[in-house]
């Protein structure tokens, strides 16, 4: 046996002992590590079992319900009313002699009914005997009376269902007067059509127009309104222009002369909203104050007198106003707290004073309704849209314009049916 063989025989046992020692050390380190991690997590190490592990089944995704279909806009006309729902449908009620309800008939409706063949609507406007709607694609649709071409289809034939106004695109706002219509394009230009006896179209003529015509004398318009026989526009700088009938000073230019072209209302600035009805005009400034001018037989200017004014005067008792509207002889304003204030004529209960029909030449708060989102006026009635989407009305109801299923006047707010 050689020396190498002897060395090899002696090395083998030593290697086995060393290997065993290393394995013992590794085992001790592993046990200590497990113990340390167990203490760190403060959780016991789960025992090893033969039970099958259940796979976690993912929970079924919850599909949100669609938003409720509620009323989002309202508009009062001569003797009829319109409502726009969040699904883009339009509903109407009241007088219908010219088809202004848009349901294909001439039958009066005492509850709201849907306007036929009309969808994707974003704005509405009720005139005396005709109605307008703006689609989200920028086109305008009209129905009802058309004796002066106010439907804008190139004819003077009434239509009891909606038809498209010719030649208009990219429209962002609409308004309807007694028998004329106006539309604002997204480039700030104004387009008009219909009755023009008092120059309310502003084209320097007194000729009716059955098709839309651009009024090039005013540019950069941001808001519009149509009274019975006048048109009013706000420019981007907050100034106001008006034209048409002016026998009660409703143009606000200091005269009582009609104008068939736009005239600047001097001394009025920072205006953000405008409203006009039969013989008065109302302006809402950015500071929340209200200014009025025109007829004042019933105190509808709100200055405590019955004196006409051909220039704007401030309604001193009001502040924090966010919306305005006017009827044939009454005026209303909505405060930021959701309360409505009203003044002027009250023969039919349009001021909402319960059984009291006394008129007021200064604003009074309307009780029995709050949380109001927006307002509108018909000739002798008032409309309010609440935050919950319900619509309320009061005043004259001889042609079912309150929409509560009756023909009885109401001196307090009643809910419109079917909305």
- Unreliable stretches (pLDDT < 50, length at least 5) are 1-14
Query: Mind describing the biggest β-sheet?
Result: 4 strands, antiparallel
CATH fold category name of the largest domain? Methylamine Dehydrogenase, Chain H
The fraction of residues in strands falls at: 35-45%
Walk me through the structure.
The chain has 419 residues and is mainly beta. The protein folds into two domains: 8-46; 71-415, Regulator of chromosome condensation 1/beta-lactamase-inhibitor protein II (Methylamine Dehydrogenase, Chain H), CATH 2.130.10.30. The protein has one helix and 28 strands.
Write a short abstract of this structure.
With 419 residues, the chain is mainly β.
Keywords:
globular; single chain; disordered N terminus; 4-stranded antiparallel beta sheet; mainly beta; 2 domains; about 425 residues; 1 helix; Methylamine Dehydrogenase, Chain H
What topology emerges from the helices and strands here?
Layout: H1 3-41, E1 71-76, E2 80-85, E3 90-94, E4 109-114, E5 121-126, E6 130-135, E7 140-144, E8 159-164, E9 171-176, E10 180-185, E11 190-194, E12 209-215, E13 221-226, E14 230-235, E15 240-244, E16 259-264, E17 271-276, E18 280-285, E19 290-294, E20 309-314, E21 321-326, E22 330-335, E23 340-344, E24 360-365, E25 372-377, E26 381-386, E27 391-395, E28 410-415
Antiparallel strand pairs: 1-2, 2-3, 3-4, 5-6, 6-7, 7-8, 9-10, 10-11, 11-12, 13-14, 14-15, 15-16, 17-18, 18-19, 19-20, 21-22, 22-23, 23-24, 25-26, 26-27, 27-28
